[in-house]
Design brief:
CATH architecture: 3-Layer(aba) Sandwich
Structural class: alpha/beta
Strand content: 15-25%
Number of domains: 1
Bound molecules: pyrazine-2-carboxylic acid, zinc ion
Distance between the termini: 23 Å
CATH superfamily: Isochorismatase-like
CATH topology: Rossmann fold
CATH class: Alpha Beta
Shape: globular
Length: about 200
């Protein structure tokens, strides 16, 4: 079985949102189009408590983009974003999530979770891996935001979990906190054995 994993297409990651990803909204039509071609669709949602340890408000003296240490792990300082239950955490209103099974991540204040499978310390699973195994999924296709954070870590964990993994590049947009971050992320994914595809290779338009 094949599954589509739609990563974090939420208001706060869209232009005008709290942690805006340039052109993030361009992932929506690609996600919607591909969903029709998959029996199994998963959507992840960044879902933080309001005092999450990645938030700049928790670190007086730090600014957004700084890398600090939290619980022994490097942590990028982010604006307050995707607070559970808020409009910013909701999916983009045009994203068709009807048939998606939803997995929340980053739900504990003490640790961040870029991957849809595990927190950044690889301690707590979200349940996504077991869900896919229960459905006898062998191959996953990943798209969404942000290419250089949650998409990348979700795809790398998918490989680690034993799934044949593909990235739908035109269905992804990145933050590029530093120039070249998206290119580097794509290279890291390719080096991990992830095939980089275009949605047109899956769906004849
Ligand atoms: C993300 C930074 C912080 C993402 C989530 O979805 O890529 N990035 N939280
Ligand atoms: Zn987050």
């Amino acid at each position: 079985m094949r599954a589509l994993i739609v990563v974090d297409i939420q208001n706060d990651f869209m232009p005008g949102g709290a942690l805006s990803v340039p052109h993030g909204e361009e992932t929506v039509p690609v996600a919607n189009l591909l969903m029709d071609h998959f029996d199994i669709v998963v959507a992840t949602q960044d879902w933080h408590p309001k005092d999450h340890s990645s938030f700049v408000t928790r670190h007086p003296g730090s600014k957004v983009g700084d890398v600090i240490e939290v619980g022994g792990l490097p942590q990028v300082v982010w604006p307050v974003h995707c607070v559970a239950g808020t409009r910013g955490a909701a999916f983009h209103p045009a994203l068709n999530v009807e048939k998606a099974t939803i997995f929340h991540k980053g739900v504990l204040a003490s640790i961040d979770s870029y991957s849809g499978f595990f927190d950044n310390g690889h301690k707590r699973a979200t349940g996504l891996g077991d869900f896919l195994r229960e459905k006898a999924v062998g191959e996953v296709f990943v798209l969404g935001v942000a290419t250089d954070y949650c998409v990348k870590l979700t795809a790398l964990d998918a490989v680690r979990e034993g799934f044949k993994t593909r990235l739908i590049e035109d269905g992804c947009r990145g933050v590029n906190l530093h120039d070249g971050d998206v290119v580097k992320a794509i290279t890291a994914m390719r080096e991990a054995g992830i095939a980089i595809l275009n949605s047109h290779q899956l769906v004849a338009t």
